[in-house]
């Protein structure tokens, strides 16, 4: 079942319109090209928003718990058998 569509009027700069038309696939409609572009842009913006929320949350946690030392060296040493307490 397809999405319900609504007609809108968009005013493109003429150069952009001509360039976009020149890059569409042979049997692809200009409408489909625009829909694909808008969907990609929305996914990109949602990704950016999610990243910003993650960074903000990480900063909030860091501020609350203070900076913690990296455990990378400890994990490496344990993998190599150093600092093992067997």
Description:
The model has no long low-confidence stretch (mean pLDDT 85). The chain is 63% helix and 0% strand. It has a domain at 28-79. The chain has 86 residues and is mainly alpha-helical. It is built from 3 helices and no strands.
Which helices and strands occur, and which strands form pairs?
Layout: H1 14-23, H2 30-65, H3 72-79
Number of helices: 3
- Outline: elongated
Total number of strands: 0
Q: What class, by secondary structure content?
A: mainly alpha
Radius of gyration: 25 Å
Mean pLDDT: 85
Q: In terms of per-residue confidence, which ranges show pLDDT below 50 for 5 or more consecutive residues?
A: none
Strand content: under 5%
In sequence order, what are the helices and strands, one letter per element? HHH
Between the first and last Cα atoms, what is the distance in angstroms? 61 Å
Report the sheet with the most strands, covering strand number, pairing sense and barrel closure. Answer: none
Percent of residues in helices: 55-70%
